[in-house]
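Lab manual, section 2.4: Encoding a predicted structure.

Procedure: take the sequence of the chain (148 residues), apply the prediction step described in section 2.3, and record the output as structure tokens. A sample record is shown.
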Amino acid sequence: MKILFVFAPYLFLRGLFEHGKKYDFINLNSDPRGLTGSEISCFQIAKQFALKDHDVAISTTLNSNRTNNWENVDIIPMDNVDDIKKIVHGDWDVVYSWNEVNVLRYANPNSLRMINLQINDVEHGEACLLYTSPSPRDRTRSRMPSSA
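Recorded output:
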């Protein structure tokens, strides 16, 4: 399965690129700033999917110390809004955005679109509640066939 993890696209979508962190995947764990919970969770989950033999990529902002691979995960730099649109619209089975709902609008219609919103990052996107069927609010109507 081809999975794209998109981290921090709101920097471009909201005109904040100059204020955001640029990642150095060569020295990721020795960065004096450290990593936030959002950063750790995104990068480690991507790494775990790669260990399960999925074709995984992370697209994010990079500093000048660029690499195209980290822990068997492809690293795809995003440098502007057009990059994001092109990368996200690619031939991915899954587009998994971290902390930004709006980037999923650019995903290929055939891609499964997923969002991971950290509780401290709700301010960055338009949050919505996702209920699966049956909804916890209405257990009387299920879309599952009775034989399932």
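Check your result against the sample. The chain has a mean pLDDT of 78.
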